[in-house]
Structures are given as structure tokens and as C-alpha cells.
Write a structure and sequence with these properties.
Layout lengths: L10 H17 L2 E3 L15 E8 L5 E8 L7 H29 L14 H34 L18 E4 L6 H15 L11 E5 L15 H4 L3 E5 L6 H14 L4 E5 L3 H7 L4 H7 L3 E3 L10 H16 L4 E3 L1 H9 L6 H17 L14 E3 L1 H10 L15 H10 L9 H8 L3 H11 L4 H11 L17
Parallel strand pairs: 4-7, 4-8, 5-6, 6-7, 9-10
Antiparallel strand pairs: 1-2, 2-3
């Protein structure tokens, strides 16, 4: 992101100023504008400054330009001290950009934070898999252009150029309903678009949804999308395990060998487990085990709940025209302790009910004219919303044999602004006393926020499980 400021300049001068930014982006270093040619400066009156180029873990490059009208006030050493911080912030900028693109397409955005343990590993794996998918999409696009040009020229036959033999790799998105599998599919779609050089959402390779067994017959009749999209859309398949094995093999051959479409399968359990249970053909299970993301249920990834709840509240408020809403600490703790059989679907239903309750209780004239007032949702409202949605508030998490991931999540979610353990707050979230929490943390060695972060990253807040390998031989 280029930081603009200062006096206005003519377009031609601004274009010259981008030369320094381009140099910093290409070299991914620090450009000292005090020593650079005059045309490299971004602003006309600058006497010193620097441009820092950095690259995010998702591959996007950003530049920050800082300048001063005083000589020697800003030097390259100042930029070098900023490099590490900018590199970390670049991932947040990428997430914000993906979130804006997804909201523009009606997806609702992403309730993820770059600070969550395991997010860096998730981003790296998503980038690697998206790069493989993007190469295949590029080959299909080149092939389509070649055929279109031949048809426009009235030509047929002839030697066909080599477009590459890379087969479309299937992806397994594993988790119970409501765990975020479709959200993850949208993220991967945007990652593929970014690796393929698509600058707008309109150019992104969308996926086409296929729900089995309802769509089992239609799925063999070819793509239902428009001609421009059909060759470049992955098939997002749900319910594959609900059809018999012979139908599975027939559909798979049709999708991957005749239509040459990548298959992104939403599965309730790991492919190996479905094969053992007889719900998935072994040859298909072997392919879906290559690239997989495993999303645990919300009850096993409580460290994500504060970020997800805040995201859902913002989305509800924006959709329904409600004032900005936040949760009191006691209300957030009540959500954190609850059991979530339907995962994020239950959480969203509870928050919607609480938001409606707050709106009905809103005092007339409390808001500033033309600007809705912010409101804080109390714990009593959340507990009533839980009961209205068929869930019982949980006053206390089990303390006799607590799960290490649950304790680590409590430590992580209640940490202080300075990154220290807040035992009193963590104990209140768990519904325990501080002495019980201290004893459990000592036994598990979780006396620091960093220890909790490492445990959550190892277990995977995103439940990331990636296995890369070569594709087996074609079916049959």
C-alpha cells in the first residue's frame, strides 16, 4: 500500500514519483530517497525519505513511502527498522483485501485474524495449493483461447500446441456442517485468482456447486454454467459419501477425465475414515487425501470464537442496519463456554437473536441524528438468546480432566494487551477459581501466552492437515 500525503501534484509528476516505489517493490528493500535521483521522490518538496518494499506470505508486494521536507530527517536506517513490522502487517493487508473482495461478491467476508495461532501455516498451505490450481486454470485458459482463435479464422485441425499435461488436483475440505468449509472454498478461489493474475473479482475462477445425491443425474449432463465460465470453474461437491460407490466412480471419471474439472469435495470426516466406513470408494479416497484442509468443530477451536463472533456481529449490523454492537466480557465468556452442536450456524443464530433483542430494547432518542449509537450486549441477553435457540448456557467448563486445547484457548483469548497471562480473567471464562486454573496450567506447562500459542498452533486452530503427493493413475 502506498501512503500518499502532502501537496497535490500533477498526474505526470505523480507517475514519475512511482519510479521509486517500483524500484523498492522489485528489489524488496529500502530505497533512500535522499541519495536517489530526484525523479524517484514521490512528493515534489521532499528533501529526505525512504520507500520500503515488502512481500506478504500470500505473495502480494506492498510499499510504504515516507518523506520529509527537512534534509536528513528520514534515512534508510529508519526504513530498515520498519521492515520486519511491515512484513508482518502485509499479511493483515492481504486478509483485508480478500475480505473486501469476498464481501463484494456477496460471500459475507472472512472471520479470521492473522494473529490466530496456525494462521501463517494455513496461509502458506493455501498459497501452495492455490498456485497448483492456478497453473491448471492458466493452461485451460490458453487452450480455450487457441480454439477460439482457430474458430474465428475458420480453421480446423492442425497441430495443437502443448498446453501441459498437469491434471486437475482434487481438494478435500473436511469438517462438520457449519465449520466454515464453504468459506474456506471462497478463500481458496480468491487465492487461485490472485496467483492467476486476476485483478478483479469478475475474472476470478468461481466454483460450481454440485449437491449429491439430488444432483447425481444432472452432474453427468455437463456443466450448467455459462460457456465462458464452464471450463474454468472447480466443482464444489457435497454429499459424495451419500451415493453408492459405483455412482461415485462414474461421476468422478466424468468430472475429471471428460470435463477436466477440478473437484473440491466437502466431506464430514477424513477420506481415510470414510473409506473404512464404506462411504467412499478407495480409489477416490486416495485422491482426496492428497490436498486436504481439516476444519474442527467450533467446540474444539474455541480460540477462534472471539474473532468469529465480532465478525458475525459486524455482518449482522451492516445487513440489518443496526447500530454497531459489541459483547461485554461476561457475554463473550458465556458464548465461549457454550457447546455448539451446529458450530458457526448456532453462533450466528444466537447473535442474531441477541441483536434483535437489543434493537427492541433501544431507547428512543439514544442515537445521534443520522448516526446509530453503539451498544454493548449484556450476558443476560446472550443467555436468553442461547435458550431461545435451544441451547443451555454452560456456567462452568469441566475441570477434573480439562482438554489442553481448551485451557490454551482460554489463556490465549484472555491475554493482556502486553501479551501476558491474565489468570483472573481466564478463570472467569472457564467458570473456575484462580487456584484451580493455576494448578492445571502448572501441570500442563501453560504458564505463558507463548506456550499456549505454540500448543494451539501445533493442534491447529484451523485444524490444518496437508498432505502433498503425486496423483495416482486414472480410474479404471
Amino acid at each position: 500500500m502506498l501512503a500518499w500525503g502532502g501537496s497535490e501534484r500533477r498526474d505526470t509528476e505523480a507517475a514519475l514519483g512511482l519510479r521509486g516505489v517500483a524500484r523498492a517493490l522489485s528489489e524488496l528493500g529500502v530505497l533512500d530517497l535522499g541519495c536517489a535521483p530526484r525523479e524517484d521522490a514521490v512528493h515534489r518538496d521532499s528533501q529526505s525519505g525512504f520507500v520500503v518494499g515488502c512481500e506478504s506470505p500470500l505473495g502480494t508486494r506492498y510499499a510504504l513511502a515516507l518523506e520529509s521536507t527537512r534534509p536528513f530527517e528520514l534515512v534508510a536506517d529508519d526504513g530498515r527498522r520498519l521492515q520486519d513490522a511491515l512484513g508482518a502487517a502485509a499479511l493483515s493487508l492481504d486478509v483485508l483485501r480478500r475480505d473486501a473482495l469476498d464481501r463484494a461478491s456477496g460471500g459475507g467476508g472472512f472471520g479470521w485474524s492473522t494473529e490466530e495461532p496456525g494462521f501463517a501455516a494455513f496461509a502458506s498451505a493455501a498459497r501452495s495449493i492455490a498456485a497448483t490450481q492456478a497453473r491448471w486454470f492458466a493452461q485451460r485458459a490458453a487452450q480455450a483461447r487457441w480454439f477460439a482463435q482457430r474458430a474465428a479464422q475458420g480453421l480446423g485441425g492442425g497441430a495443437r500446441p502443448a498446453f501441459g499435461a498437469l491434471a486437475p488436483r482434487p481438494i478435500a475440505l473436511v469438517g462438520p456442517p457449519g465449520s466454515g468449509r464453504r468459506t474456506l472454498a471462497r478463500w481458496l478461489s480468491l487465492e487461485v485468482a490472485a496467483h492467476g493474475g486476476c485483478e478483479s473479482l469478475r475474472d476470478a475462477p468461481f466454483f460450481e456447486r454440485v449437491a449429491l445425491p439430488v444432483d447425481a443425474l444432472d452432474a453427468t449432463r455437463g456443466p450448467r454454467m455459462d460457456a465462458e465460465r464452464a471450463d474454468f470453474a472447480a466443482l464444489l461437491v457435497t454429499g459424495l459419501e451419500r451415493v453408492d460407490r459405483a455412482t461415485q466412480v462414474g461421476l468422478w471419471e466424468h468430472w475429471t477425465e471428460r470435463l477436466r474439472r477440478p473437484v473440491w469435495a466437502l466431506l464430514p470426516r477424513l477420506p481415510s475414515a470414510l473409506v473404512e466406513e464404506g462411504g467412499l470408494a478407495p480409489e477416490i479416497g486416495a485422491r482426496l487425501a492428497l490436498d486436504r484442509f481439516v476444519l474442527p468443530p467450533l467446540a474444539r477451536s474455541r480460540a477462534r470464537l472471539p474473532v468469529l463472533a465480532a465478525h458475525l456481529l459486524r455482518r449482522i449490523a451492516a445487513r440489518d442496519g443496526l447500530p454497531c454492537m459489541a459483547l461485554s466480557d461476561a457475554a463473550l465468556a458465556a458464548l465461549w463456554r457454550a457447546d455448539w452442536p451446529c458450530n458457526a450456524l448456532d453462533l450466528e443464530a444466537v447473535l442474531e437473536h441477541a441483536a434483535r433483542t437489543e434493537r427492541r430494547a433501544e431507547r428512543p432518542g439514544a442515537a445521534h441524528p443520522g448516526r446509530p449509537a453503539a451498544c454493548v450486549i449484556a450476558v443476560a441477553t446472550i443467555e436468553a438468546a442461547l435458550r431461545s435457540c435451544g441451547l443451555e448456557p454452560v456456567p462452568r467448563r469441566p475441570s477434573r480432566h480439562p482438554a489442553p486445547q481448551e485451557l490454551a484457548a482460554a489463556v490465549w483469548c484472555t491475554r493482556t494487551a502486553g501479551g501476558r497471562v491474565n489468570k483472573a480473567r481466564a478463570a472467569s471464562w472457564l467458570g473456575w477459581d484462580s487456584a484451580t486454573l493455576g494448578a492445571r496450567l502448572h501441570v500442563l506447562g501453560l504458564n505463558s501466552v507463548e506456550g499456549a500459542r505454540r500448543l494451539l498452533a501445533r493442534e491447529g486452530v484451523f485444524g490444518l492437515g496437508i498432505e502433498r503427493g503425486s496423483l495416482p493413475a486414472p480410474l479404471g
